[in-house]
UniProtKB/TrEMBL annotation:
<feature type="domain" description="ABC transporter">
    <location>
        <begin position="2"/>
        <end position="230"/>
    </location>
</feature>
<keyword id="KW-0813">Transport</keyword>
<protein>
    <submittedName>
        <fullName>Sodium ABC transporter ATP-binding protein</fullName>
    </submittedName>
</protein>
<keyword id="KW-0547">Nucleotide-binding</keyword>
<dbReference type="InterPro" id="IPR003593">
    <property type="entry name" value="AAA+_ATPase"/>
</dbReference>
<dbReference type="InterPro" id="IPR051782">
    <property type="entry name" value="ABC_Transporter_VariousFunc"/>
</dbReference>
<keyword id="KW-0067">ATP-binding</keyword>
<dbReference type="InterPro" id="IPR003439">
    <property type="entry name" value="ABC_transporter-like_ATP-bd"/>
</dbReference>
<dbReference type="GO" id="GO:0016887">
    <property type="term" value="F:ATP hydrolysis activity"/>
</dbReference>
<dbReference type="GO" id="GO:0005524">
    <property type="term" value="F:ATP binding"/>
</dbReference>
<dbReference type="Pfam" id="PF00005">
    <property type="entry name" value="ABC_tran"/>
</dbReference>
<dbReference type="InterPro" id="IPR027417">
    <property type="entry name" value="P-loop_NTPase"/>
</dbReference>
Length: 302
């Protein structure tokens, strides 16, 4: 499988933040969900990928090349959607297109104009008159109008109402009918990923916790629920995270077969959602050697 993006042992440090030996891949032809709490470093990594920041060490390759080998050629293949629209708000959309189009040899005015119509964006409207949602739609229209192969989307649905969010997600899915198209979608709205993600990268405290196809992740991790008296200390050591409440325990584990063999239908075993994976892996011990033990009241208060 070809990778659209490869990070190998990338480190980056400021006075307040550190990424240390970050490695992960974004496979070509899939939607990769890039998740992590606010401040975990997702936007910093995206800026490193786009060569807006320089890594202290390690390598970043896009389409098999480092950015300094062919910056213009690589960036022409990327549709980049920032979390904000960085354009002069005194410009009209028409003026913005005039300024941006020359950077892309495959710029397609007809495609861009079709997106404007689809999104109800007047061509001669000034950017300062656009709402947050309209600005994000414009951002997407620019990214999707020059025949890009890789879309890097940094919180593209933040601040959008549910109807517009669904429009944006449907648009991304339509683009991926072509199997050569690749998406790296950074978001804190996990329900967006439940709908479209094929691959998952989870960044926690500057470290990569997950980097795999979603199907394989769900095969490896299971949610087990049962009566509190079933969960002794030995079984707790087989959990990555567990919590007790009045109705019983909930645990994330890679050893669900042990629970099933011991207790049969006394326990329920389910596939985790992406949101459950993020919460429980975020609070638990990834190695599974020392499970985290919190009540639901404690979890809710954090």
């Amino acid at each position: 499988m070809m990778n659209a993006i490869e990070l190998n042992n990338v480190s980056y440090k400021t006075k307040r933040f550190q990424l240390d030996d970050i490695s992960f891949n974004v496979p070509q032809g899939f939607v990769t969900g890039f998740i992590g709490a606010n401040g975990s470093g997702k936007t910093t990594i995206i800026r490193l990928i786009m060569d807006l920041l320089q890594a202290d060490k390690g390598s970043i390759r896009l389409f098999g090349k480092s950015m300094n080998m062919d910056e213009v050629g690589i960036k022409e293949k990327i549709g980049f959607v920032y979390s904000e629209l960085y354009l002069n708000d005194k410009w009209t959309i028409k003026k913005a297109e005039k300024m941006i189009a020359p950077f892309y040899k495959n710029w397609n005015h007809d495609t861009f104009y079709d997106y404007l119509n689809q999104f109800d964006l007047p061509y001669k409207a000034k950017i300062k008159t656009l709402s947050t949602g309209m600005k994000m739609k414009l951002n997407i229209a620019f990214a999707f109008s020059h025949d890009a192969e890789l879309f890097i989307l940094d919180e593209p649905t933040a601040g959008l109402d549910p109807i517009v969010r669904n429009e944006v997600l449907d648009l991304i899915q339509k683009e991926l009918i072509n199997e050569n198209k690749t998406v790296l979608l950074s978001t804190h709205i996990i329900s967006d990923l439940e709908k479209i993600a094929d691959y998952l990268v989870y960044l926690k405290d500057g470290d990569i916790i997950l980097d795999n196809y979603l199907d394989e992740i769900i095969q490896n991790y299971k949610i087990v629920r049962g009566s509190n008296d079933l969960l002794d200390d030995e079984l707790k050591d087989l959990t990555i995270f567990h919590e007790d409440n009045k109705t019983g325990f909930t645990a994330l584990t890679k050893e669900h077969q042990v629970f099933e063999e011991l207790f049969g239908n006394q326990v329920m075993v389910n596939n985790p959602t992406i949101e459950e994976l993020m919460i429980y892996l975020g609070k638990g011990d990834i190695e599974g050697s020392h499970s985290s033990h919190q009540s639901q009241d404690e979890v809710a208060s954090q």
